[in-house]
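Researcher: Can you fold this with manganese (II) ion in place?
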Amino acid sequence: MPLTSPDRQEIHQGSLQELILKVRQFNPDVDGDLIEKAYTFSAKLHKGQKRSSGEPYFFHPLEVAKILAELQLDTASIVTGLLHDTVEDTVATLEEIEKEFGSEIAALVDGVTKISQITFQTSEEKQAENFRKMILAMAKDLRVILVKLADRTHNMRTLEYLAKEKQVLIAQETLDIYGPIANRLGLSQLKRELEDLALRFTKPEIYYRLVTEVAKKYKEREKYIEDVRLMIQQTLKDHGYSNGSVTGRPKHFYSIHKKMERNQLNYDQIFDVTGFRIIVDSVEQCYGALGMIHAMWTPVPGRFKDYIAIPKANFYQSLHTTVVGPAGERIEIQIRTEQMHQTAERGIAAHWAYKEGNVDPKEREKFSWLNRLVEWNQDLKDPNEFLETVKLDLFAEDVYVFTPKGKVMEFPSGATPIDFAYSIHTDVGHHCIGAKINGRIVPLKHKLKSGDTVEILTSPNQRPNKDWLKIVRTSRAKNKIRQFIKAAEFERSFQLGRMILERELKAQDVKVKNFPKESDFEPITKQFGYKSTDDLLSAIGYGKVSISKIIQKLVQKETTEEKKVEKKPIERIYEEAARKSKTRQTVKVKGIEDLLVRFARCCNPVPGDSVIGFITRGRGISVHSRKCPKVFDSDPHRLIDIEWDLSQKTERRVKVRVVCEDRPGLLADMSRVIRDQNANISNAQIGTTKDKKAVCVFSVTIRDLSHLKKIISSLEAISGVISVGRVQKGP
Ligand code: MN
C-alpha cells in the first residue's frame, strides 16, 4: 500500500492518543474525555496561529502538556498545559474556561497567565522581589509553577527560532529565575535541561566546546567506565540484589561550566572524577550496597553523605560516597531506591497527587506545607501576612528573611545583619550597629535564619571597619565596605601627608604660596607620577613617597625661581630633621617617621596609656587617651592609630590629687615619698574641705604610667592619706 501523507486531523488525533497513552501509563483512571475536550478546544482557538519556527502554534501547548505528562502530574495540570496560552493569546476568556472546564482549571490557567505577565529583572537587587512574586504564585497553587516550568522548557527547546537578542534575554532569565526554582522544587531533570539550554544560548562557544570535550573524554574513558559498571553490577548480583542497576551519571554541561568557573579549571582538569549511580530495591539495600562498595574500594574520608537519614530541603534522598576505584582513580557513587530516584529527578512533581483524592496520608503529611499554602489561598487577602506566615523551609540552602514590612529578602546562608543593611541602602549599611531579629536585639555577627524578621539598628557614629569584611557574605556588602575603608584610608593619609609636608616646609623655612595650591605642586605631582596633589599628599601620608625628596624638589624650585641668596645645603636640612626627630619622637605612627606630636590637654596621656592620634590641621597629631570623651566627638576620618615608642626616654608632667587628714608633717611625708620615686614636684597646691580634710594637688614629672602608679601607691601607703588619684586634665 502506497504511503500517503496524513492530513492534519490525523496528526492531531495521533498526538492526542499519544498524550492520553502517556498519562494512562501512570494514571490508569485518567479522564481521557477531559483531555480530549481541552485538546480540541485549544487546537480550535490557536488555529491559524504560527510559532516563530513556522509550526502551528498549537504544537506548543501540546508539547507543554506532554512535558507535564512526563512529570506524571494530575489531569488538571495536563489540561492546563493544553489551555495555558488561550486566555493570553486567543479570543478565549477566563469565564469560558471556567464554564467549560470548571473553576480549578480556570484558576490554574489564570495563575499561569499572570506569571507570564510578571516582568523579571535579573539584577541582584530585583532577584528577591522576583522570588517573592514566584512564591506568591506558588502559594496560589504549586501546579501553576509546574505548568510554567514546562512552558519555559518547551520555549527553551525552541529558542533557536527567535531573534538573537531575545534568545539571550530569555536564556538569562531562565538561569536567574526558572533554574533556581526548578532546583528548589527538586525538579533536577528539568533544571538540568533548562540550564544546559540556557548555557547554549548565553555562552554558545563554551557550550559547544563542552559538548565536544565531554564526548571526546567519554570515548577515552568508555572502557574504564564500562569495566567499573560491570564490577559493581556483578557484586550486587553476587549478593542477591537482583534488581540493582548501575549507570554512569548524566552529563550536565552547565554544572561543569560552573565548576570550571568556580575552581578556575581548564578542560583537561574537569573530568578527573567519574560518577556512577546505583539503584536498588529498598533502603536496607542502599546501605547494603554502600557496604559492598566500601569493602571493594577504599572510601575517601569525609566524602560520605547520608541524605537518606537526613534528606535535603527539596526532599532529595541518596547515599553519596567517593572511593578510590581501579587504577587508583577516584569515583563518585550515589546509591538510592527507585522512589528516591523519582524524587531526585522530578522533585515535588514525584509527590504531586495525580490520583485525585487518593493519596497516601504519609505523603500528604510530608507535603503539609503545600496543603497549608493551598489552604491559605482561600483567605489570602494580605500578601505580607502570607509572607510572614510561610517560614520558607522550602528554601533551606539560602536564607530568606523578612523586612518589618513583610518583604522577603534572599541571602546566602551565613549572612549577617550587615548584609541585610547593605541590601537596603549603602548608608544603612555604613551605620549599622546591630539588628532586632523577631524583636530581639542581636549583634552584627549574628547569622540570619530563614523566616527571621529583621529590623536594622543604626547610629550616626557607626563606621564600617575591616572586621566587617570577615563576617559579611554578599558581594554587595563586601564591595561597599571596601570602598568605604579605601576612602577613609585615603582621607587619613591625605591629612597626614599634608600635615607632614606643612611641618617640614615650616621647619625648612620654605614658603610655598597658597599651600597647597594645585598649580604650585603640579610639576612635582607629575614628577613623582601622581595624578593630583591629593594623591601625592596621600602617598606621603602612606609613606610611599619620601618627604625629603619632595622638599628637595621644592627647594630647588624655590631657589631657582626666587633666586634666593641664602642657599641652604641639602645635607644640613637632613641633619636638622634627623636631630629634631630624635628628641621629639615619643609616639609612633605605623610607617611614618618623624612626626610632630602634642599631647591633648583634655586627657594628658602619659607613656603606657592607651592612646589614639588626631590629625589636626597644621598642628601635627594630637595624642589623646582612647577613653577621652573628645575622641568620640572627633571626625573619625582623622583619627589615626599610634603607639608609644617606649624605647624613647621622655618626661611627662601630670597632676596627682591627694585627699588626707589635716595633720602636721603630712605634706613633708608626701613630698619625700614622691622624691624617693625619683620624680620632681614642680608645683603643689593645698586646700581644705568643709569637713576639715586637706586636698593637695601635686604637679609631678614622671617617666611613664608604671612610674605614676608607683608614686600613687606609695602615697596611698602613708598613714593619714585617704585617697590618691590622677587628674586627667593636664597642667
Ligand atoms: Mn506558552
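Model: Folded with manganese (II) ion in place. The two ends are 120 Å apart (CA to CA).
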